[in-house]
Amino acid sequence: MEPILDIENLTKTYGNVPNQTKALDGITFQVMPGEFLGIMGSSGSGKSTLLNCIATVISPTGGRIVMEGKKLQSLRGRSLAAYRGQTVGYLFQNFELLDNLTGRENILLPTSLHGVAEKESLLRLNQLAEYLEITEVLDRFPTQMSGGQRQRVAAARAMILHPKLILADEPTGALDSKNGKNIMEKLSGLNRDEQATILMVTHDSNAASFCKRILFIQDGVIFHELRRGDESQQDFYGRILKVMAQLGGGSSHVF
Fold first, then answer.
1. What is the per-residue pLDDT for 251?
2. What single DSSP character describes residue 175?
3. Per-residue b/e over 204-236, b at no fewer than 16 CB within 10 Å?
4. Minimal CA–CA distance to 243: which of 221, 220, 215, 219?
5. Contact of 58 with 12, CB cutoff 8 Å
6. What are the backbone angles phi and psi of residue 251, rounded to the nearest 5°?
7. Which of 89, 67, 91, 92 has its CA nearest to residue 79?
8. Which of 87, 111, 200, 232 is deepest in the core (most CB within 10 A)?
């Protein structure tokens, strides 16, 4: 099986000599179709920079990002717009919903921008709304929804174009524990039932325990990887906590 995303020796440097900061220092990994991959690290570790490079929000200094055989740095014009609009879906910490649009209108916005037929758009909307349990809020504005409802509406918007890859940036960061667990259960379900490929940046060990694999970043490099086997989610959570404890202590040696 070929990887859907292939990142090779990725670097990102900010500033000029002699005051340069290397946010990414030779990151290499692959994401396979249908994988649920978590990226964890402390503040300033480089995980958000990595996600922004994949999202083409910023450009890396060196290395390659290849999505389904296409090097992202070579995309221009319509090809770049298609990548940003259709190949990847975005799920943000602060929802990024438009307050003057209803939940329904927010979710359908990508389909109208990318020319999906109305019948197909409504079919996708109804399927996602039922799965994410947001049917009752489709005609409400974001200010009339709870945080959990807003994040599930945002998840539907991210999924409506059937993207090849969902980029989730701290999706539980603005939620309480109950709603955080709910959105993670929904994302995990989309991964399991729809084979959605998800790349999630998080500092939340509870959220990370829903992943199948986790890469830990410190000082711009990957220093450890965890894979969930046949163990329970609780046992996997315990292993995550162990790595995060050592990460907090500045150790890159995990046993």
1. 38
2. S
3. bbbbbbbbbebbbbbbbbbbbebebeeeeeeeb
4. 215
5. yes
6. -90, 135
7. 67
8. 200
Within 10 angstroms of residue 243's Cβ, the number of other Cβ atoms is 21
Query: What ranges in the chain are assigned the alpha helix state H?
Result: 47-54, 77-82, 103-113, 118-132, 147-159, 177-194, 205-208, 233-248
> Across the chain, how many H-helices and E-strands are there?
8, 10
Confidence category of residue 248, pLDDT binned at 50, 70, 90: low
Nearest CA among 214, 176, 220 for reference residue 22: 220
How far, CA to CA in Å, does 25 sit from each of 22, 44, 45, 73, 180? 6, 13, 11, 18, 31
pTM tops 0.85, yes or no: yes
Model confidence pLDDT, tens digit, residues 172-200: 988 888 888 999 999 999 899 889 999 99
d(CA 178, CA 134): 16
Largest interatomic CA distance in the chain: 58
- C-alpha–C-alpha distance, residues 117 and 12, integer Å: 40
For the record, the structure tokens of 163 come out as 């993207």
In contact, 208 and 40? CB cutoff 8 Å = yes
Q: Beta strand 21-31 with 213-218: parallel, antiparallel or unpaired?
A: unpaired
pLDDT tens-place string over residues 187-243: 999 899 889 999 999 989 999 999 999 999 998 999 899 999 999 999 999 999 999
Given a cut of 50, whether residue 50 has pLDDT beyond it is yes
- The 8-class DSSP code of residue 32 comes to -
